[in-house]
């Protein structure tokens, strides 16, 4: 049996994925995570450090890491890169002031060697707000089409209403499983 | 006697079956373990073999064993080989222990670095040899990149110009109320010596570059950002408060989660004590529990030690608290 077949079998048995959720502070990362888990989202504090949740979805075990995005925490992001299958980049679509900052941080991340194999899902969050940019506008401002190093997708969503969250996660799971569970 | 004579063999049989099952299980475990170890060893062997090959290619390049005209293709081949190795490694991380992961990563990193160094050293030669076409190609690509940055910067400018709120004022008293601010993203910026009252419930509030002002607001649905402010009094109700790069400010707070400060000093906090006609309805409309106010628990992101409290914020003594009308 070749190594690739072995690897495929191993991962298939576990069906486990490691997802890393990053983005600027206030993007809504923790709110997305709690919404997924059916927890209360009205009393969430800015994240000092990180949260980790294991979610079961479509027979997969998703280990989701939600790391705080405040400036002083960004230098710690690197500690969470190891073995990441999927990177979820969360954007506050209504925060027009910081979109360039957001773009810079994202493109910097994509140069990280340890995230080289990860699939990228961009959540254009807070679509429920009247002032939110559409996901197409976010795609253009963040210059996503220039990304050639990673599989990527952008989905407009709202952590408050829950809309399109599943759609994004399902795409992510499909892309990752096509990559790591079907290596031949 | 008869009964036990019959029972004994049955018990023996059962025990025998159990033993057999256990042996089988152990064998399977062992096989699994063996097979895991085999996979790991296989990976390590392959990885070592491939990186050795790359190293030898690199050293051929380094000691000038590659003819000038072949250098570019040699470099791109090595580059590809390293990428393949990286992919192989990434796909295998889940069977490796942390030690092997680190070691392999380091090795890949060293390969990449040596290639980069060689590229820098050999690049001028390469440019000489392939002046016309290649250089041009590179240039057009660069121009395009600059273009794209420009357009997204321009876009960003337009977006921020459409800000809704109050800016560039000195020594003024301004009141905004009701529907004009309700659930809106309100920005207050570049203000000095002003008093601002927001009678209503903004969606988000951005306060930046504000000096010596008093700012009051009804309940903000989501976050309040405070940036580059000094010598101010803020009377705020909100879900989250995020303060950056500010100093010498007093906050009279109703906050349903925890307030945070970053790169900020000399902050004092007190409970929210503003009221206007309709404040209670505005609170009710958000469904907030009025008793849940965490005004006195501030997280300082520059003070991660948990055993000592942050020196950057304190509670405003009761006799120094002001009242507003
Ligand atoms: N309207 C709206 N508000 C949202 C949405 N998602 C998050 N928010 C609000 O945005 C604010 C920030 O949300 P958080 O989940 O704390 O943001 P975060 O990305 O975890 O921030 P850090 O922990 O500092 O990195 C909160 O006030 C949320 O209620 C959304 O989809 N729609
Ligand atoms: Mg958070």
TrEMBL record, chain A:
GO terms for biological process: establishment of localization in cell; vesicle-mediated transport. GTP binds at residues 23-30, 69, 125-128. The keyword DNA damage does not apply. GO terms for molecular function: GTP binding; GTPase activity; metal ion binding. It comes from the Eukaryota. PROSITE patterns: ARF. Keywords: GTP-binding, Lipoprotein, Magnesium, Metal-binding, Myristate, Nucleotide-binding. Mg(2+) binds at residues 30, 47. SUPFAM superfamilies: P-loop containing nucleoside triphosphate hydrolases. Signal peptide: none annotated. Belongs to the small GTPase superfamily. Arf family. NCBIfam families: small_GTP (TIGR00231). This is ADP-ribosylation factor-like protein 2. It comes from Megalurothrips usitatus. The lineage of its organism: Eukaryota, Metazoa, Ecdysozoa, Arthropoda, Hexapoda.
UniProtKB/TrEMBL annotation, chain B:
One of its GO terms (molecular function) is tubulin binding. It is found in: Cytoplasm. Keywords: Acetylation, Chaperone, Cytoplasm. The keyword Membrane does not apply. Gene3D superfamilies: 2.160.20.70, Tubulin Binding Cofactor C, N-terminal domain. Residues 17-36 are annotated as: Disordered. Residues 148-303 form the C-CAP/cofactor C-like domain. Its main location: cytoplasm. GO terms for biological process: post-chaperonin tubulin folding pathway; tubulin complex assembly. One of its GO terms (cellular component) is cytoplasm. Supercomplex made of cofactors A to E. Cofactors A and D function by capturing and stabilizing tubulin in a quasi-native conformation. Cofactor E binds to the cofactor D-tubulin complex; interaction with cofactor C then causes the release of tubulin polypeptides that are committed to the native state. Belongs to the TBCC family. This is C-CAP/cofactor C-like domain-containing protein.
């Amino acid at each position: 049996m070749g190594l690739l077949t072995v690897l495929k079998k191993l991962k298939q048995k576990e069906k486990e994925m490691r997802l890393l959720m990053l983005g600027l502070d206030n993007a809504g990362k923790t709110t997305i995570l709690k919404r997924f888990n059916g927890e209360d989202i009205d009393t969430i504090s800015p994240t000092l450090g990180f949260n980790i949740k294991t979610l079961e979805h479509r027979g997969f075990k998703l280990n989701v890491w939600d790391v705080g995005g405040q400036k002083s925490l960004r230098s710690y992001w690197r500690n969470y890169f190891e073995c990441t299958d999927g990177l979820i980049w969360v954007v506050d679509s209504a925060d027009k002031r910081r979109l360039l900052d957001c773009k810079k941080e994202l493109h910097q991340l994509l140069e990280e060697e340890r995230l080289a194999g990860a699939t990228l899902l961009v959540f254009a969050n807070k679509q429920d707000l009247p002032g939110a940019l559409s996901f197409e506008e976010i795609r253009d401002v963040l210059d996503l089409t220039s990304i050639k190093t990673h599989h990527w997708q952008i989905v407009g969503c709202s952590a408050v209403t829950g809309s399109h969250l599943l759609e994004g996660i399902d795409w992510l799971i499909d892309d990752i499983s096509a990559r790591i569970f079907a290596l031949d | 006697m008869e009964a036990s004579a019959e029972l004994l063999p049955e018990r023996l049989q059962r025990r025998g079956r159990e033993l057999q099952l256990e042996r089988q299980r152990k064998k399977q475990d062992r096989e699994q373990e063996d097979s895991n170890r085999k996979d790991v060893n296989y990976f390590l062997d392959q990885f070592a073999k491939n990186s050795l090959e790359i190293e030898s290619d690199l050293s051929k390049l380094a000691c000038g064993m590659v003819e000038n005209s072949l250098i570019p293709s040699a470099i791109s081949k090595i580059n590809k080989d390293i990428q393949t190795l990286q992919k192989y490694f990434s796909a295998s991380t889940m069977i490796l222990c942390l030690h092997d992961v680190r070691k392999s990563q380091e090795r890949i990193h060293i390969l990449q670095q040596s290639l980069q160094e060689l590229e820098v050293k050999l690049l001028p030669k390469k440019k000489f040899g392939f002046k016309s076409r290649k250089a041009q190609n590179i240039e057009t690509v660069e121009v395009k990149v600059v273009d794209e940055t420009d357009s997204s910067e321009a876009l960003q400018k337009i977006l921020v110009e459409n800000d809704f709120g109050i800016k560039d004022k000195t020594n003024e008293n301004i009141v905004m109320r009701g529907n004009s601010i309700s659930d809106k993203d309100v920005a207050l910026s570049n203000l000095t010596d002003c008093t601002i009252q927001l009678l209503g419930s903004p969606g988000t509030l951005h306060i930046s570059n504000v000096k010596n002002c008093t700012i009051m607001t009804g309940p903000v649905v989501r976050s309040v950002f405070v940036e580059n402010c000094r010598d101010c009094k803020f009377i705020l109700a909100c879900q989250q408060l995020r303060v950056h790069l500010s100093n010498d400010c007093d906050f009279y707070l109703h906050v349903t989660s925890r307030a945070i400060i970053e790169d900020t000093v000399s902050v004092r906090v007190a409970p929210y004590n503003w009221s206007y006609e309709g404040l209670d309805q505005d609170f009710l409309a958000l469904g907030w529990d009025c008793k849940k106010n965490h005004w006195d628990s501030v997280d300082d992101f520059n003070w991660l030690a948990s055993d000592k409290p942050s020196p950057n914020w304190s509670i405003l003594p009761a006799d120094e608290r002001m009242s507003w009308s």
